[in-house]
Amino acid sequence: MAQQDGARLFRETWIAGVREYFPGEPKAGYVTPWDDTPEWERQAAGAVYEQVVQFFALSDGQAARLSREQKGRFVATCWTAQMYRHFEDPKPGYVADWSDLPDWQQETDSDIFEAIEKSLT
């Protein structure tokens, strides 16, 4: 899958997760469709997609054996690195540690990893 398609998969899985797990009405930016997603966010999504793909390749597919939480943590850590790449002084919520993320975001990050994993098989 091309990186742009992977970035789109990331974004679509994010939106689906927000709609499933977010308590109440999410902020509009959380569910902005791909065509309206800012370029920096598209680039970050594509980079995280590629990191998960490489993680699978480098582990000879054994990354599939991680727990759901470990999978989500990996996505969250990769996303945090992208926030530091794209912003000099990112908002604290953009770079929060896994334990400080709300449950809905942890579940969504885990879903993202699993969607990428599924796309590789």
Describe this structure in words.
The chain is an all-alpha fold and 121 residues long. The protein has one domain. It has helices at 3-21, 39-58, 68-86, 103-119. It starts with a helix and ends with a helix. The relative contact order is 0.19.
Which secondary structure elements does this structure contain, and how are they paired or packed?
Layout: H1 3-21, H2 39-58, H3 68-86, H4 103-119
Helix pairs in contact: 1-2, 1-4, 2-3, 3-4
Number of strands: 0
The end-to-end span amounts to 11 Å
The biggest sheet, with number of strands, parallel, antiparallel or mixed sense and barrel status, is:
none
Radius of gyration: 14 Å
* Average pLDDT number: 95
Strand content: under 5%
Q: How many H/I helices?
A: 4
Helix % is: 55-70%
Computed structural class: mainly alpha
The SSE order reads: HHHH
Number of domains: 1
Query: What coarse outline follows from CA principal-axis ratios?
Result: globular
- Outline the low-pLDDT stretches: none
Short account of what is shown:
The chain has 121 residues and is an all-alpha fold.
Keywords:
single chain; 121 residues; globular; 62% helix
